[in-house]
């Protein structure tokens, strides 16, 4: 009987301990964009939960794009059904944070950073990296993914056209000229899928590389009108007329490039791993820096996202901060880079204990780091209509590339429609 009593007591103790553990466990609701990015979000979450058994990560169904995720967050803000952590596209971060701030629905990570040891902060985050997640004076988020547009190319097709795969053109005129030589009846010289890209990243790229900005110093007036925008649209039209760019959607273009039907292809480095694996031994894939016409003032928009905390419960806020530190830390960034191709957003990630050996063996993945000095913040438009603005701009750009709208008329329409929506 005594043994039976001890068994019952032990079972009761175990049950109590288990119940207490469950009571202390925190579940974080997390939302990110692009379903394909589960390839790094899932293993990172698994590794985090292994190291933090008291915190469970529950992913909501991923948004189809940053724009779709942004709209979902705005709706959830009104109904008070926000996730605990969200990965906001940089270009929509200001608009989102300003909206959430009005309802006190976003955590200022600046205060949390100050509470950490200064040596740790400086070892992991540069001021430039931190600036990507800032909105005004608030450290609204920490950069998780970061990228600038990257040139992918078929080394065999470049050689056949008389080009040098080890020294690709560094400006747009020479890039277009090389692509024209690559072009045959069966092969397109170049593809730059701005006409159906889900956001204005590639449009900003073509404008900013020339040393220009999309808005003037006041941030209230369009700065890409006149000769600046005219040249950009004429360049985009020439990709079709000179280089034979097929006006198909970006996923089809990627498949055509992988099949050896496009010589030069511009894309996010986030899909470098996927493209590399799909090409296999078909041809020699190489990467090169994005062409920049103005070497002194040219910049590139930094795509990607920042992790923000919208949890209200103090226990969830504490757990979310541990999660955000982990996903922006060197261990998680190693997973991101190796499974995608993004630039790491942690200073320690390139060390030999993390990505050092990988970069030594994978030159294509290292290329993107050569554009860090040109990376600039990707900011949206004032007025809360950034998503709508791009959709209207894209419609005009596609019309110009198809030859249905003349470049001059196109840029005039883009300027007037954009400024109207900014108000």
> What kind of oligomer do you see?
single chain
Computed structural class: alpha/beta
The first-level CATH class of the largest domain is given as Alpha Beta
How many individual β-strands? 13
Beta percentage is 5-15%
CATH architecture of the largest domain: 3-Layer(aba) Sandwich
What name goes with the CATH superfamily of the largest domain? Answer: Periplasmic binding protein-like II
Largest sheet composition = 5 strands, mixed
Computed Rg: 24 Å
Domains, number: 2
Mean pLDDT: 93
User: Could you estimate the helical fraction of the residues in percent?
Assistant: 40-55%
State the separation between the terminal residues, measured CA to CA: 82 Å
- Outline type: globular
Total helical segments: 19
Describe the structure.
The protein is an alpha/beta fold and 423 residues long. It has two domains: 2-147 and 303-373, 3-Layer(aba) Sandwich (D-Maltodextrin-Binding Protein, domain 2), CATH 3.40.190; 150-301 and 381-422, 3-Layer(aba) Sandwich (D-Maltodextrin-Binding Protein, domain 2), CATH 3.40.190. 49% of the residues lie in helices and 13% in strands. It contains 19 helices and 13 strands. It has helices at 2-24, 38-51, 66-79, 90-102, 109-114, 118-124, 127-131, 155-160, 172-182, 201-208, 226-241, 250-258, 272-279, 314-327, 330-339, 356-361, 363-366, 386-402, 407-422, and strands at 26-31, 55-59, 85-89, 134-135, 138-139, 141-147, 150-154, 188-191, 262-267, 285-288, 300-301, 303-309, 375-376. A five-stranded mixed beta sheet has the order 2-1-3-12-6. It has a four-stranded mixed beta sheet with strand order 8-9-7-10, with helices on both faces. The protein has a two-stranded antiparallel ribbon with strand order 4-5. Helix 2 (38-51) links the parallel strand 1 and strand 2. Helix 2 (38-51) packs antiparallel against helix 15 (330-339), helix 3 (66-79) runs parallel beside helix 4 (90-102) and helix 11 (226-241) crosses helix 18 (386-402). It starts with a helix and ends with a helix. Mean pLDDT is 93; it is low at 1-5 and 7-23. This is ABC transporter substrate-binding protein. Residues 1-23 form the signal peptide. Its main location: periplasm. It is found in: Periplasm.
């Amino acid at each position: 009987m005594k043994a039976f009593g001890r068994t019952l007591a032990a079972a009761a103790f175990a049950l109590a301990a288990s119940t207490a553990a469950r009571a202390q466990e925190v579940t974080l609701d997390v939302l990110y964009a692009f379903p394909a990015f589960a390839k790094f979000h899932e293993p990172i979450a698994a590794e985090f939960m292994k190291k933090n058994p008291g915190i469970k990560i529950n992913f909501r169904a991923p948004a189809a794009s940053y724009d779709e995720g942004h709209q979902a967050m705005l709706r959830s803000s009104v109904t008070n059904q926000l996730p605990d952590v969200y990965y906001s596209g940089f270009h929509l971060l200001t608009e989102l944070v300003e909206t959430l701030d009005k309802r006190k629905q976003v955590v200022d990570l600046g205060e949390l950073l100050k509470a950490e040891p200064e040596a740790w902060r400086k070892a992991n985050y540069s001021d430039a990296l931190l600036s990507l997640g800032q909105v005004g004076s608030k450290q609204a988020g920490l950069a998780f993914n970061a990228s600038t547009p990257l040139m992918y190319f078929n080394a065999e097709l470049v050689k056949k056209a008389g080009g040098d795969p080890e020294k690709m053109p560094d400006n747009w005129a020479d890039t277009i000229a090389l692509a024209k030589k690559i072009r045959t009846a069966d092969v397109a010289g170049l593809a730059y899928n701005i006409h159906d890209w889900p956001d204005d990243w590639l449009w900003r790229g073509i404008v900013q590389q020339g040393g220009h900005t999309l808005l003037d110093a006041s941030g209230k007036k369009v700065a890409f009108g006149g000769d600046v925008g005219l040249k950009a649209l004429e360049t985009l039209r020439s990709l079709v007329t000179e280089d034979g760019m097929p006006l198909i959607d970006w996923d089809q273009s990627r498949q055509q490039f992988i099949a050896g039907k496009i010589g030069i292809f511009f894309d996010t480095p986030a899909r470098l791993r996927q493209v590399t694996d799909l090409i296999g031994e078909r041809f020699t894939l190489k990467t090169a820096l994005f062409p920049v016409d103005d070497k002194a003032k040219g910049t590139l928009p930094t795509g990607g996202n920042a992790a923000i905390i919208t949890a209200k419960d103090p226990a969830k806020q504490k757990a979310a901060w541990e999660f955000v530190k982990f996903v922006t830390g060197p261990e998680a960034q190693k997973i991101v880079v190796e499974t995608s191709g993004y630039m790491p957003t942690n200073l320690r990630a390139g060390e030999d204990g993390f990505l050092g050996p990988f970069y030594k063996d994978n030159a294509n993945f290292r290329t993107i780091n050569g554009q860090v000095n040109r990376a600039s913040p990707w900011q949206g438009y004032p007025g809360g209509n950034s998503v709508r603005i791009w959709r209207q701009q894209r419609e005009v750009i596609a019309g110009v590339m198809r030859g249905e709208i003349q470049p001059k008329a196109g840029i005039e329409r883009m300027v007037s429609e954009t400024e109207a929506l900014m108000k």
